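Incident review: delayed structure delivery

Summary: a single-chain prediction request sat in the queue longer than the usual turnaround. Root cause was a stuck worker, restarted by the on-call engineer. No data loss occurred. The affected request and its eventual output are reproduced below so the record is complete for anyone auditing the incident later.

Affected input:
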Amino acid sequence: QVEESSESNTAARVSPADQIVLQKVSEVLLPNAASQQALAAISMTEINSQRIVDRSICLIDRSIGARRNARLLLSEISQDLFLRQKDQFVLIPGELRPAWQIHFALRALGPLLQSNSQLRLWILGEGRERKRVYQYLKDQSIHYAVSLPGVFTDVTELLQAVDLCLLPSENAGLSWWASVCAKSRIPMLLPKSAKVTSNLSKRSPAFDFQAGSVPSLRKAVQKYQNNSTALEQACIQLQDSLLQSADSEPDTVERIAQKLL
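Output delivered after worker restart:
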């Protein structure tokens, strides 16, 4: 049993007795992000974990004022989260585990991070890949442009501040994050493959890159950097179509993802 914390972005607490139990298990089911933070706090990121996500989806305030305030708030939390208003903020959500294909994304974005001082990349989550990811960032001399802020129990400010949400893996995270981005008009890139039959590509090719292709992903991000209008307009049209097809039932991951993927 993991005791929940009442404070936003504060880790839950794991009792000494539960720590002993956790040392004996190979996989654990986590009720929320605070529980995932708790594992990281006691250095148990090697355990395979699955997190139960909130199935409901709320609209994120993406007004100019809200976005500016979110960046200021994040910068006040930690120097590692400092963002200038002119920075292009790319977010990779998820976990530092192989299934999320973080290294694939870094190979694609590495040259862009080296050549553009305004490009900033944050990779959310915890996991056994953290040390390997950080070493790769140092080896490629891009550690100054990439932050590994861990797990957030509340991602509202992140989703307000972000310019582009990148989902590199066809096997993890697509349903929840694509649904959240679509509902709140957040520009996103996601893989197109045999596994992911994306209705988004029918609306606009600006959403897609070829799954597993470093050149394809790099080109998609470059296109957004050079001219964000196409993807932003596609997001507006996508949100409008979701609103038009909405009924009295609350939006959930399943309902929106069914329309998108």
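Verification: Confidence is low (pLDDT under 50) at residues 1-8.
Action items: add queue-age alerting; document worker restart procedure.
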